[in-house]
Amino acid sequence: MARLLKNTEISTPSTAIRLPIGSSAVRPDQPVNGQLRFNTSTSKIEMYFANVWNSVAKIGTVNIEEDVFTTANATVQYGPMSYSYEAGQEANVQIYVGGVHQLPGTNYQFQGNTFVLINPSNGTAGQTISVFHNFNSTDAA
User: Fold this and answer.
1) CA 82, CA 23: separation in Å to the nearest integer?
2) 124 and 71, same structural domain?
3) Residue 16 maps to a domain
4) Which among 33, 57, 117, 134 is placed 20 to 30 Å from 76, CA to CA?
5) Do 44 and 69 reside in the same domain of the chain?
6) The pLDDT value given to residue 69
């Protein structure tokens, strides 16, 4: 017997819905884009989209990590950082020079486990550079 919700608002605080539950080995045989389920192998909610199962939720605590550097005259490349990045992975990182947020592509670029400052918005020598990592991690501790 199937139960369907159509145009139903679930608004009481004590109400919840339960997703289908199963391991990676028992995923649907013919999945359809948009399907949701809780994967007991990974302990994460996943959604089938673009013909692949993708984790869509963080379970637990994701640790934000910080690397600290100090600006120096004529130095534009800093590192090594705790993680390596390529262009397009800017969502993983926030960089501040002297407390001023730097814009990716405008103020810095990644080169593996180093970054290059380009026209830093606060480029005085002796300023603290704080590099915060893991903002889009789906790996929880």
Assistant:
1) 32
2) yes
3) no
4) 134
5) no
6) 95
Q: Average pLDDT by consecutive 10-residue portion of the chain (141 residues)?
A: 63 78 93 91 87 76 86 87 82 86 87 84 80 72 48
Q: Which of 97, 87, 93 is nearest to 133 (CA)?
A: 93
81 and 118 share one domain: yes
Residue 39 CB partners (closer than 8 Å, separation 6+): 22, 23, 24, 27, 45, 46, 53, 55
Give the range of the structural domain holding residue 30, as residue numbers without chain letter: 21-55
Specify the pLDDT at position 59.
59
In a domain, 119, yes or no: yes
